[in-house]
Amino acid sequence: MPDTRFSILRELFARTQRDLTRLLTRRVGPDHAPDIVQEAFLRVMHRDMTEEITDPPAYLRRTAVNLAMDFSRRRRLESRLFVADAETYDAPSDEPSADETLEADRRARILTTAIETLPPKCREVFVLRMHHDVPQDEIARRLGISRNMVDRHLRIAIKRCRSAVQ
Description:
This protein is mainly alpha-helical. 75% of the residues lie in helices and 0% in strands.
């Protein structure tokens, strides 16, 4: 009797293995499909009442599909709980390095000094435009100067700030 059961399972494997692998490849990908096919055959093979199964190919297919759903469910859960790959720990930080922070602080101090040394009207135009994002027409209206004069003050301020920082 065991020889008969073995030959039935071997024939079932030969007839359905390719189709099952193709089906599972669409569901879980080519890397995992062969393992799930093998697991499905093992479960059918270890089932005690193989003779009671009326449609062995359908039973095998349902077993394989159920295993694929379990696998997909487990993978989704793991992706939520665990980091995707260990290399993420070795990824460079988005934070600036200590040297970059020191350099940025130095440049900020130089820029602050350059802004403080601008002529008063030029500094006022620059601060309103760059720090408070006031449009140039509004600056001209607030300070009682022409739009061209606002543009001129901005050009002077930007030129001096750039040369100080470089």
